[in-house]
Amino acid sequence: MATKLLDKLAVAADPAPAGGGALPLTFFDVPWIFTGPVERVFFYPYPHPVDQFTASLLPRLVSSLAAALSRFYPLLGRVRPRADGEGYEFCSGDGDAVELTVAESEDDFEELAGDGPRDVARLYSLVPRLPAPGDAGFALAAVQVTVFAGRGIAVGVSIHHVACDDSSYMHFVKTWAGHCRLAAAGQEEEAGAVPPPPFLDRAVIADPDGLAARTLDEMRQLAASGPPPAPPPGPPPKLVIASFTLARGCIDKLKQRVAAGDKHAAAGVHCSAFTVACAFAWACLARAGAAACDQDLAHLLFSVECRRRLAPPVPQEYLGNCLRPCFVEVGTRDLLAADGVATAAAAIGASIRALDVAGGVLAGAEGWFQKILSLVPRRPMSVGGSPRYGVYDTDFGLGRPRKVELVSIDKTPGTVSLAEGTDGKRGIEVGVALPEAEMARFASCFSDGLLQL
Predict the structure, then answer these.
(1) What backbone torsions phi and psi does residue 99 show, to the nearest 5 degrees?
(2) Cβ distance 140 to 10 under 8 Å?
């Protein structure tokens, strides 16, 4: 279906920020330099013609974006090499702006905003591309608003992962949405409508062991060793993306099943909703053949937020990356067995519980990058997003979104996304992007697994 470009706008911060200049990359940021953006699309019903969108809603979206960027001004800038050749830095200054694409789509809004399998390429027509890199470095953020005449709108947000993690990403989007909601109500301020401002002091991330420089050196050595292996010959498989829901009752049953296993209960399993959702999705991927099952061990990789776990803790509003990887492995046969979900949950819980032992959350940090690289050929399942970020609480004055899609999970095979359930009853939504045949098998495994609870 055709998507027509209506306009491209450069949105600067308003009021202009007092800050600017250069900011350092921390060791939490450096590993993401050569990755790409986190890309989400938020779908909202909007049963109005394009003219009303252009005259009424679009100006509010633009002015509220400018207000949000005034607080999150580092997102206006770029990442560039430092003048002394010692790594990279964030830079921003007068005249910086974020590109806002305005488009109209003839595609089926109801289908795109649904849970069933959809061609990932259709969703990417709603995702803004970051401007092409240049000699001055590369841009960090871009947004797109696409109107479906008489049916809805889609708000696409792309933010390069080197700029921030998902906690900061959603902090920015909810700040934008809060300002837009106030504008729709004709108000300038309302207690709690806009989240607290971001915390911008990067000095709170201490690096006494020089982890940022060491990680960058490892990345340079990797680049010098030659290009990555070529992809398999022929066209890449068509990917579809779909969502599956673990209702609260199912989550409770999964937790009871994990706790009921004597060999797990004795270890004092960390058995949260996140733990069992990851375990259930991991087992489904393995049984569907979407995870590597031709080896003795199956691997899972997920990130843990460190703001509250650092000593001293970092403010929750800190703008940047503050994640550490967690590595989990179980026997492939154990994962495929009847009690594979319980086995996986126990292993996931143990990895989370280990963060609180001697050495703290940064234990082994010097080896994280190499360990991630070593796992890539083994096709681990990885996890994007989290139910704790409340993506369905993002209200631009249009109510709760009909659907929120983390489209960028398609970049890494075996990645699932997690979000809170859309029903507001503490369930979890699991998103996955797979080739069509694997998606059909995954859906079957997911529904069969629920029937067995």
Answers:
(1) -80, 125
(2) no
Q: Judge if the upstream peptide bond of residue 17 is cis by omega within 30 degrees of 0.
A: no
**Which two tokens mark 9?**
């706008």
Calpha distance 320→408 (Å, rounded):
19
Question: Of 70, 95, 82, 85, which Cα lies nearest the Cα of 137?
Answer: 82
pLDDT digits (tens, 9 = 90+) for 16-70: 887 678 889 999 999 999 899 999 999 999 999 999 999 999 999 999 999 999 9
The pLDDT tens digits for 113-126 are 999 999 999 999 99
Q: What pLDDT, in 10s, does the model give residues 136-172?
A: 789 999 999 999 999 999 999 999 999 999 999 999 9
Could you tell me the end-to-end alpha-carbon distance of the chain, in angstroms, rounded to an integer? 41
Calpha distance 402→382 (Å, rounded): 25
Q: Are 326 and 305 in contact (CB under 8 A)?
A: no
Cα–Cα distance measured from residue 382 to residue 302, given in angstroms and rounded to the nearest whole number: 5
Edge-first strand order for the sheet with 323-331 is 118-119, 239-246, 428-435, 415-420, 381-385, 297-305, 323-331
Strand partners of residue 88: 81
Residue 79 CA to residue 136 CA, distance in Å, equals 8
Token pair 């776990």 is found at 309
CB distance 172 to 72 below 8 Å: yes
Nearest to 80 by CA among 94, 90, 68: 90
> How far is 97 from 106, CA to CA, in rounded Å?
29
pTM: 0.95
Q: Give the side-chain half-sphere CA count within 13 A for 97.
A: 12
pLDDT of the residue at 231 = 58
Residue 268 scores a pLDDT above 80: no
The answer to whether 275 touches 251, Cβ cutoff 8 Å, is no
3 state SS of 250 = helix
* Structure-block tokens of residue 290: 């979407």
Tokens 């069509």 label which residue?
436
Other CB atoms within 10 Å distance of the CB of residue 132: 7
Tell me what pLDDT residue 382 has. 95
